[in-house]
Amino acid sequence: MNKLQQLREMTVVVADTGELPAIAEYKPQDATTNPSLLLKVAQDEAYAELIEKSVAAANGNLFDAVDNFAVDIGCEILKIIPGRVSTEVDARLSFDAGATVDKARKLIERYQNRGVDRGRILIKIASTWEGIRAAEELQKDGINCNLTLLFSFAQAAACADAGVFLISPFVGRIMDWHKANGGQQAYEPHEDPGVISVSRIYNYYKQHDYDTIVMGASFRNVGEIQALAGCDYLTIGPNYLQELRDDKGELKRRLSPESTGDSQPRLQLDEKAFRWMQNEDAMAIEKLAQGIRAFAADQVKLEQLVAPLL
Question: What structural domains does the chain harbor?
Answer without folding.
Answer: 3-309 (3.20.20.70)
